[in-house]
Write a structure and sequence with these properties.
Blueprint (H helix, E strand, L loop, with lengths): L1 H23 L14 E4 L2 E5 L4 E5 L5 E5 L10 E2 L4 E2 L3 E8 L9 E8 L5 E5 L11 E3 L2 E5 L4 E6 L5 E6 L9 E3 L2 E5 L4 E6 L5 E6 L9 E3 L2 E5 L4 E6 L5 E6 L9 E3 L2 E5 L4 E6 L5 E6 L9 E2 L5 E5 L4 E6 L5 E6 L9 E3 L2 E5 L7 E5 L5 E5 L6
Antiparallel strand pairs: 1-2, 2-3, 3-4, 5-7, 6-7, 7-8, 8-9, 10-11, 11-12, 12-13, 14-15, 15-16, 16-17, 18-19, 19-20, 20-21, 22-23, 23-24, 24-25, 26-27, 27-28, 28-29, 30-31, 31-32, 32-33
């Protein structure tokens, strides 16, 4: 009798859980966060994946230029979080459309939106997983990875699938495209070099740890870190290791390269300046925060901007790692800062503001978005 009662209670709790989960995905419910917001800067405008929509802001004052969709209450296009890609004609974004019923699944969509008007031109919804990072565009082709383990190549003008490549696990990284080759990492511990034309494998490198960042290419060498606590320099033609250095934790974000120096950060908050030719450590600075975002560098190459999970943006002297200034914010900095001249733009997750513009010389705030209204 007691065992029967326990079984009935278990069944009832299971059914209740199914109903709660299903209702949370119905139309009109709050979007489910699976990644974090990103932005792109092009021609004095910021293209922001702003959760409920794709938002375009004036870089000088954060005034809205257009948004897609314009009416999020009556035209729900899902949750926008991955960094948009901006071309001459289009903005390529991705969203997660909510469930429409008890047992339905979310829909994962790549959108091409007219850059001038904000109107959708085409969409692609064949992927079965979340888009964690944005794509890349080259030679009329959009390439983007998905959590279903595939890399998708779409026609830029129509959104038609040109090819897809199956990896052994989720693809969280944005690809790098150069000279007809797609370089993209997967959580299956491989970095792949694929033909942009048809997706065939040119080479693949097994690091023994997952790849979540985008590599940087300079002078025929790819620079990238992995989840086996190791940072690599690889020959871009063959995938052969030129040098590697150990870190103290995962290398989540990608590196940035200026002149002959490579800058990278591991999750423990160790920032490394490395000689590009040999991998020798020029300097190492440990921050008081974990780091997952790719660093950025000022246009004159003097300051390295590093975002922390504690909400701080660190400005380090590129020459020796000295801390020039630190700006503390509510939330987390999980996305690469964007630099334009004397201004750096940071994206915040889980904070009051989602985008802030700061003076690069001292970290003082110029504006914050969305503006807060007095109650």
């Amino acid at each position: 009798m007691k065992e029967s009662l326990v079984r009935r209670q278990t069944v009832l709790l299971t059914l209740l859980l199914i109903i709660v989960v299903s209702l949370s995905g119905c139309v009109g419910g709050a979007p489910r966060a699976t990644s974090w917001p990103g932005l792109a800067f092009v021609a004095d405008k910021l293209y922001v994946a702003d959760i409920a929509n794709l938002q375009v802001l004036g870089a000088e004052d954060a005034n809205s230029v257009w948004s897609f969709p314009t009416d999020t209450k009556n035209d729900n296009r899902g949750t926008f979080q991955v960094t948009p890609v901006v071309t001459d004609e289009y903005v390529i974004a991705a969203s997660e459309m909510p469930r429409t019923g008890f047992f339905s699944q979310p829909t994962y969509v790549v959108w091409a939106v007219d850059r001038e008007t904000g109107r959708d031109v085409w969409s692609f919804s064949e992927a079965s997983g979340t888009y964690v990072e944005g794509g890349a565009v080259s030679d009329g082709t959009v390439v983007i990875g998905n959590s279903d383990g595939y890399v998708y190549a779409l026609d830029l003008e129509s959104g038609a699938l040109q090819w897809k490549f199956e990896t052994g696990h989720r693809v969280w990284a944005s690809p790098l495209i150069d000279s007809g080759v797609v370089f993209v990492g997967s959580m299956d511990r491989h970095l792949y070099a694929l033909s942009l034309a048809d997706g065939h494998v040119i080479w693949d490198f097994n690091a023994g740890g997952a790849f979540a960042g985008t590599p940087v290419l300079q002078d025929g060498i790819l620079f990238i870190g992995a989840f086996n606590d190791t940072f690599y320099a690889l020959d871009a033609d063959t995938g052969q290791v030129q040098w590697s250095i150990p870190g103290e934790n995962w290398f989540w974000g990608g590196p940035v390269v200026h002149d002959d120096t490579v800058y990278a950060a591991d999750v423990n908050g160790n920032v490394y300046a490395l000689d590009a030719a040999s991998g020798a450590i020029i300097w190492q600075q440990t921050l008081d925060s974990q780091v997952r975002a790719t660093p950025a560098i000022s246009e004159d190459g003097t300051l390295l901007l590093v975002g922390g999970e504690n909400g701080s943006l660190y400005a380090l002297a590129a020459e020796d790692g000295f801390t020039v200034w630190v700006d503390e914010s509510e939330g987390q900095v999980l996305t690469t800062p964007v630099v334009d001249g004397s201004v750096v733009y940071e994206v915040l997750t889980y904070g009051t503001y989602r985008v802030r513009a700061l003076r690069i010389e001292n970290g003082r705030e110029i504006w914050a978005y969305p503006p807060q209204t007095e109650s």
